[in-house]
Amino acid sequence: MTYKITKIVLGFFMLALLVGGSACTTTPDCELDHTGTLKVINNDSRQSEVRLDGSKIFTLESGQDKEYEVASGTHNIRCFTTGTEPDEVEDQVTITDCETTSYEIQY
Fold it and tell me: 20 to 30 A Cα–Cα from 29, which one of 5, 10, 65, 70?
């Protein structure tokens, strides 16, 4: 009788493992650090400088895109042309943990 009960309990335990999956999972760094990725796309014919919250993060050539890891939350983005035809745009972007947010420069 004890053997039968042990076998049944063991069977339920195995079933619980199969249904519940493994409890050993790792949390991605972006979730722990509360960061996401900003992808900036320059489809304009001019070179553009990109600033995030007042700090220059990079310069993009025409047709180029780049990614930048940033803290999750709402940020101010400012893009402006660096050539002889000045143009500028200011906007806000919201970054979410572990996700990529795309922003296309549109003057």
Answer: 65
